[in-house]
Amino acid sequence: MSKLLVVDDEVKIREVIREYAEFNNYEVDEAADGMEAIGLCKLNEYDLIILDVMMPKLDGFSTCKELRKFKDTPVIMLSARGEEYDKLFGFELGVDDYVVKPFSPKELMARVHAVLTRKASAQPEEQDVLNFKGLSINIPARTVLVDGEKIELTPKEYDLLFYLAKNCNLALSRDKLLSDIWGYDFFGDDRTIDTHIKNLRNNLGPYRDFIVTLRGVGYKFEA
Fold it and tell me: Which residues carry this modification: 4-aspartylphosphate (predicted)?
């Protein structure tokens, strides 16, 4: 049974999500703010976190940023605001999906199922290390070294780098990257790819040019 953490300062919203989640055979813990959520995540293991943006003490974006320092748990963000900036900022932090309030509890559960399914199928088959000059990608350990120094990547940035490197010298369209990394049922658009590519290049430093832009197509890894 998968275990969810629902983080929202509105009691009624937590109650509704709990009711639907338990009906779908999920175990549920609740937190009323970001600080409480971080405390629970340090004590427990969760399969997915449903996280509200606007909360007292610590907002959802700040909470996600803190969680990513020690957890790789998938996150679905809830927000009353649907602005593109908020969504892109969330995806930069490694959020797996973004749901705008008011939302359908049934749709939310469908998204929870989709994210958990992607997570279960995303385990790498190869158990090795990919080396490209001073760039080293350790697949089983999910670590990346740039000239011997470990760099910090979000889970999606790592998945994107691994996928590009595994398909070295192959042209990959934005649609294919979205489909194979985020899943065919992802509700965002191809600008999500561009945002992650930009962040990934910044993290790769001297090896940023390994990721080549193909105008009108997408990207390829060329080392």
Answer: 52
DSSP category for residue 179: I
Which domains are present in the chain? Answer: 3-121 (3.40.50.2300), 129-221 (1.10.10.10)
| Helices within the chain (DSSP H only) | 11-23, 34-43, 60-67, 84-92, 105-121, 155-166, 174-177, 191-204
Burial of residue 218 (CB within 10 Å: 0-12, 13-18, 19+) is buried
The pLDDT tens digits along the chain (223 residues) read 899 999 999 999 999 999 999 999 999 999 999 999 999 999 999 999 999 999 988 989 999 989 988 888 999 999 877 666 677 777 777 788 889 888 999 999 999 998 898 777 655 444 478 899 899 998 888 899 999 999 999 888 999 999 999 888 899 998 888 888 877 555 555 678 888 999 999 999 999 999 999 988 899 999 8
Nearest-CA neighbor of 185 among 82, 98, 88, 115? Answer: 115
pTM of the shown model: 0.60
